[in-house]
């Protein structure tokens, strides 16, 4: 008996990028105290009013099969939110509710890529991107961005690959770099997509975490609504990572087909989770700003710490809950630095190489522990880097 090549080949024969994280978790399991600055998990949990509404909905009986496309009221709420933020007319017919953003990414590529099609994505990338593309049978083609450009992608770098491709996946605010793509960057991407008839899949799960600049959805650019699928999620905006509720927004025709896909795969999202998500979204901007505030505050704290030394440089931290730190002055790769830091000081960060080759010599720091501990860990990281440099 053999396992399918589609599953056995998800990682492309390489590491999944989580080696340092797994090592840190092993140390914790063995009783070692480790400061974890690895994954994008809020240090606060889902707000009590959201959980209370979830409990209310469950106790009221919304525990059976829910509507596969999502409840009408949640789809309406997501559509209204998207239209308000982007100005693009959006109705429930443009919305599919999914079990989180990752399921939405997979479904979006299932809808746009046939087996053997080339799917483009940018380096650095969130760790699941290439495996997601392989999982739908597409051929992943990575396009490197540059540290000297603050990891803003150049249209001229995408163009040579576009003619033979079917889709392009982008992510702004960006994980892992924390960069927010500029209007010029997104207009260049949009031009390439229109010139070469590409589907654009836009991962916008960090759209509420913008510290500098402005989040622009490429769906709002001229002539892009009919070729763009937007992925959203409750995970980051409302600290609902474990609730697994996300969405895809796109043209009505493709959403119709995606509903058919959901019928044959996930069969929807639990009703009480959807009700709680609707409740959370209707709390408005104030709740989203409250959940984002710790990261805004820690970013400011980090800039103060980093300004006091010269061994570690900060990639422009414009959004998301991460810092990308340039540690090339130490002479170490990101992986070597992260492993050495974990050994010496029991501080766990993610190597830049976990997210592709473009961020080699960098590490990603998640701003996901309380302020005093975060500041202390960052000062230790900088002191360690200065010793190496």
Automatic annotation (TrEMBL):
Enzyme Commission numbers on file: 2.6.1.1
Keywords of the record: Aminotransferase, Pyridoxal phosphate, Pyruvate, Transferase
Domain Aminotransferase class I/classII large: 37-380
Pfam families: Aminotran_1_2 (PF00155)
Transmembrane region(s): none
Reaction catalysis annotation: L-aspartate + 2-oxoglutarate = oxaloacetate + L-glutamate
One of the GO BP terms on file: amino acid metabolic process
GO terms, molecular function: L-aspartate:2-oxoglutarate aminotransferase activity; pyridoxal phosphate binding
First and last residue of the signal peptide: none
Cofactor: pyridoxal 5'-phosphate
Domain of life (superkingdom): Bacteria
Family membership noted in the UniProt record: Belongs to the class-I pyridoxal-phosphate-dependent aminotransferase family.
Database matches in PANTHER family: ASPARTATE AMINOTRANSFERASE
Protein name per its UniProtKB record: aspartate transaminase
Organism taxonomic ancestry: Bacteria, Pseudomonadati, Pseudomonadota, Alphaproteobacteria, Rhodobacterales
């Amino acid at each position: 008996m053999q396992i399918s090549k589609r599953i056995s080949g998800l990682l492309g024969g390489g590491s999944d990028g989580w080696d340092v994280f797994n090592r840190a978790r092993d140390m914790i399991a063995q009783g070692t105290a480790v400061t974890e600055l690895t994954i994008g998990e809020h240090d606060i949990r889902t707000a009590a009013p959201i959980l209370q509404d979830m409990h209310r909905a469950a106790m009221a009986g919304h525990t059976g099969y829910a509507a596969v496309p999502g409840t009408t009221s949640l789809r309406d709420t997501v559509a209204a939110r998207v239209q308000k933020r982007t100005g693009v007319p959006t109705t429930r017919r443009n919305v599919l509710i999914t079990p989180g953003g990752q399921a939405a990414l997979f479904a979006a590529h299932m809808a746009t890529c046939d087996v053997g099609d080339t799917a483009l994505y940018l380096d650095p990338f969130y760790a699941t991107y290439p495996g997601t593309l392989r999982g739908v049978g597409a051929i992943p083609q990575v396009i490197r961005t540059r540290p000297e450009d603050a990891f803003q992608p150049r249209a001229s770098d995408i163009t040579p690959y576009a003619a033979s491709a079917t889709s392009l996946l982008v992510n702004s605010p960006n994980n892992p770099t924390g960069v927010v793509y500029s209007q010029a960057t997104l207009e260049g991407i949009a031009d390439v997509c229109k010139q070469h008839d590409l589907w654009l899949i836009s991962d916008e799960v960090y759209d509420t975490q913008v510290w500098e600049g402005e989040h622009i959805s490429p769906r709002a650019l001229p002539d892009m609504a009919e070729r763009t699928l937007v992925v959203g999620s409750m995970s980051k905006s409302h600290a609902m990572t474990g609730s697994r509720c996300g969405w895809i927004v796109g043209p009505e025709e493709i959403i119709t087909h995606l509903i058919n896909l959901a019928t044959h795969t996930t069969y929807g999202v639990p009703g009480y989770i959807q009700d709680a998500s609707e409740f959370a979204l209707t709390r408005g901007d104030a709740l989203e700003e409250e959940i984002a505030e710790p990261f805004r505050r820690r970013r400011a704290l980090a800039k103060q710490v980093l300004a006091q030394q010269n061994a570690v440089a900060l990639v422009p931290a414009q959004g998301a809950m991460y810092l990308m730190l340039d540690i090339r002055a130490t002479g170490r790769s990101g992986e070597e630095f992260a492993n050495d830091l974990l050994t010496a000081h029991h501080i766990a960060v993610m190597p830049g190489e976990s997210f592709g080759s473009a961020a080699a010599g960098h590490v990603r720091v998640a701003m996901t522990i309380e302020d005093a501990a975060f500041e202390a860990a960052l000062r230790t990281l900088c002191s360690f880097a200065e010793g190496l440099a």
